[in-house]
Amino acid sequence: MASALIDGLLRHQTSAADIAAVDVSGEARENLARRFGIAVVAEIAGAPQAGVVVLAVKPQQMKQVAMELRPHVRDALVISIAAGIRTRDLSRWLGDHGRIVRAMPNMPAMVSAGITGLFAMDDLRESERTAAEKVLQAVGSTLWVEREELLDAVTAVSGSGPAYAFYFAEALEEAAISLGFDEPSARRLAIETFAGAMRLAAQSDEPPAVLRARVTSRGGTTERALQKLDAEQVKRAIIDAVRAAAERARELGDEYGKN
Questions:
Q1: How far is CA 168 from the centre of its chain?
Q2: CA within 20 to 30 Å of 84's CA: 104, 117, 167, 230, which one?
Q3: Residue 33 has what DSSP assignment?
Q4: CA distance to 214, 245, 252, per residue, from 154 (Å)
Q5: How far apart are the C-alpha atoms of 185 and 176, rounded to whole Å?
C-alpha cells in the first residue's frame, strides 16, 4: 500500500524530492529508491522532518514504530493506514499526539481505483483534513466517517470487499468451466462481466437492486439463477460474513491497543 501511495502521489504532481520513506529492509529500500527516485533511509531518526507522516506498517508493529517516532512528529499530521489501530492508542504511543487521521484504503488503490474510509481526531485543522484527503485521493476516492467505530465497518465492507468480489468472480469462472469453457475464456467471461456490471452500477443513479431487477425477466434464465441463490440464502450469508469481518476488526482493535 505504501508503494501505491507513493506512485499515486508522484502521478498527481507531488515531487519525488518531497517524499521520503523509512524501511528496515535493504532490498525494499533499494527497490523504492530505484522505482520512484525518492530518498529512503533505514531508521526513523535518519528521515527528514516531515509535515505529513504516513504509517504504513503492520498493525502488530505499530506500537514499536510509534514509540520510535514519538520524538520526531512534533506538529506533523500523522496518517495511519494500519487496520485495527485506534487513534486513542496511537496517540498514546506517540506521546498524546492529537493530530492523527486513521485511514482504511483497499486493494484497488494499487490501480488508483480504491476507496478509503477516513476518521480524524478532534484536534485536526481543516487544512490537515484536506492534506489527508490529498494523500489518499492519489489512489482513489475517500469517505469521511464521524465515528471511529464505523471504520470497523469500512474495513469489513470495502477493506475486505475486494476479496468478496474476487470470490464471486472465482465462482463464476468455475461455473463457466463446468459448462464447457476453457480456463482463459471462462476467466475472461467472469472478470469482464463483473467489471462491466460494476462500471454500470458506478455510473448509474439507480441502486443495485433496481439494476438487478432490470436484468431479470419473468420466467427467464436470470430469474431461475436468482431463485437458486435466494433458496440457498446467499444474500443473508454475505451480510453475515461482512458483519463477522466487522466484529473481527473490533477484536483486533482491542487486541492491538491493550498495552
A1: 19
A2: 167
A3: H
A4: 29, 10, 14
A5: 8
Q: Pull the grid cell for residue 50.
A: 516531515
Closest CA to 54 of 23, 92, 89: 23
Task: Indicate the burial class of 118 (C-beta count within 10 angstroms; 0-12, 13-18, 19 or more).
Answer: buried
Answer whether 17's CB lies under 8 Å from 41's CB. Answer: no
The CA–CA distances, whole Å, from 225 to 71, 191, 212, 221, 232 equal 60, 19, 12, 6, 11
Report d(CA 137, CA 200) in Å as an integer: 22
The Cα–Cα gap between 39 and 42 comes to 10
Residues 6+ apart with CB under 8 A from 220: none
pLDDT in tens, the chain (259 residues): 999 999 999 999 899 999 999 999 999 999 999 999 999 999 998 888 899 999 999 988 999 999 999 999 888 999 999 988 999 999 999 999 999 999 999 999 999 999 999 999 998 999 999 999 999 999 999 999 999 999 999 999 999 999 999 999 999 999 999 999 999 999 999 999 999 999 999 999 999 999 999 999 999 999 999 999 999 999 999 999 999 999 999 998 898 887 7
Q: How far apart are the first and last CA of the chain?
A: 26
Strands 114-120 and 20-22: unpaired
pTM for the whole structure = 0.91
